[in-house]
């Protein structure tokens, strides 16, 4: 059970890193492209199904994607029950 709690905690951190990375432009072919690709590959299997269910919130002409926020809350709820 302790391993599962640790893995959920690590995934929470990976998801946070992806959220922060999404705020900054990543140049194609740049040094951060490989790092970003890793974090996107790790989190997209969870975020893509959430995006299919949760539409973006419209703020003027911008759509705010809430899937990562829902995933963070979901992970915390799961960790609360398991850990």
If you had to describe this structure to a student in words, what would you say it looks like?
- The protein has 83 residues and is mainly α.
- It has one domain.
- Helices cover 69% and strands 7% of the residues.
- The protein contains 3 helices and 2 strands.
- It has helices spanning 2-21, 33-53, 67-82, and strands at 57-59, 62-64.
- A two-stranded antiparallel ribbon has the order 1-2.
- A hairpin with a 2-residue loop joins strand 1 (57-59) and strand 2 (62-64).
- It is flat and about 40 Å long.
- It starts with a helix and ends with a helix.
- The relative contact order is 0.19.
- The mean pLDDT is 92.
Radius of gyration: 14 Å
Domain tally: 1
Query: Main sheet: which strands, in order across?
Result: 1-2
Q: What best-fitting shape do the alpha-carbon axes yield?
A: flat
Distance between the termini: 8 Å
The overall strand count is: 2
What is the chain-wise order of helices and strands?
HHEEH
Summarize this structure as a short list of keywords or feature phrases.
83 residues; mainly alpha; two-stranded antiparallel sheet; 3 helices; 7% strand
Q: Would you spell out the secondary-structure blueprint of this structure?
A:
Blueprint: H1 2-21, H2 33-53, E1 57-59, E2 62-64, H3 67-82
Antiparallel strand pairs: 1-2
The gist of it:
69% of the residues lie in helices and 7% in strands.
């Amino acid at each position: 059970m302790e391993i599962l709690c640790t893995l959920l905690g690590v995934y929470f951190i990976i998801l946070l890193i992806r959220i922060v990375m999404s705020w900054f432009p990543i140049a194609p072919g740049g040094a951060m492209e490989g790092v970003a690709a890793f974090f996107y590959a790790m989190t997209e299997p969870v975020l893509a199904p959430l995006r299919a269910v949760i539409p973006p919130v419209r703020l003027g002409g911008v759509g705010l994607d809430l899937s990562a926020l829902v995933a963070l809350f979901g992970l915390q709820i799961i960790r609360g029950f398991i850990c």
